[in-house]
Specification:
By secondary structure, this protein is of the alpha/beta class. Helices cover about 35% and strands about 20% of the residues. Helix 3 runs parallel beside helix 8 (about 115-120). The radius of gyration is 20 Å and the shape is globular. About 15% of the residues are buried.
């Protein structure tokens, strides 16, 4: 189901761009509704792991998970790490480039509850699918854009009514419905950054650029963001 259809048919839990509520608070309900739509009657569980302790607690109850036909588990560390690199100077020092980002992520994984969970699951007759909802790209080049106070804050795409820009380094969606995107009003449009560009406002432009340059962002049009890897794991024997 495309985003526009999601917004239409799940208006009771869909969060619009200009809403202050977090957009990832209803993931379990979206999952249950999608299974119901597909006429899949299964016993499921949903777990979102944000802290190490939550991960360890999940590993401790792995036998209970075997009673379900589907267990959806979200480990949020990598996404949190990319955001932390933007906001915390120490994390920037630890991850000055893509190679360091990958190295730090690997170090976390090797000592994480996720690896412990996968080891335990490898001893059971289950199938594990590893994937993600999006990738990230290290942004380096600013792109000036002007918008009103209702424009969203994402650095890789903007959605609003009064956007002013030069369109040589972005994708413009003047008719959101053609891209199956939600249309809040008649004049709603979207613009998406390409390559390693990121949007910056003319006000305090230099400060904004210095703050966000060389940070990891998502929401635009690049192979790094849009190609979603997945792997299916089965136990040996």
């Amino acid at each position: 189901m495309m985003p526009a259809d999601m917004a239409k048919f799940h208006s009771d839990i869909w969060v619009q761009e200009d809403d202050e509520e977090g957009k990832n608070l209803n993931e379990e309900e979206f999952l249950r509704r999608n299974l119901q739509k597909q006429k899949i009657n299964a016993k499921i569980s949903y777990h979102k792991i944000i802290t190490q302790q939550q991960g360890r607690n999940l590993v401790d109850i792995v036998d209970n998970l075997m009673n379900n036909q589907l267990n959806a588990i979200v480990f949020n560390f990598v996404d949190m790490l990319s955001h932390a690199r933007t906001d915390i100077n120490m994390i920037r020092e630890l991850m000055p480039d893509n190679a360091a980002y990958r190295s730090l992520t690997k170090s976390w994984f090797m000592h994480s509850p996720l690896l412990d969970l996968l080891k335990k699951l490898s001893e059971r007759k289950v199938q594990v699918v590893l994937t993600t909802d999006h990738g990230t790209i290290c942004v380096k080049r600013p792109f000036k854009i002007i918008g009103d106070r209702n424009v969203n804050t994402n650095l890789r795409y903007k959605q609003g009514k009064n956007l002013n820009y030069d369109d040589d380094k972005l994708l413009v969606a003047q008719q959101p419905e053609r891209f199956h995107l939600p249309k809040l009003n008649l004049s709603t449009s979207y613009v998406f950054a390409v390559e390693d560009y990121f949007f910056a406002y003319p006000n305090n432009f230099n400060y904004y650029v210095n703050y966000y340059k060389d940070t990891f962002q998502h929401g635009g049009l690049s192979l790094e963001e849009m190609i979603i890897p997945f792997i299916v794991l089965k136990p040996k024997g």
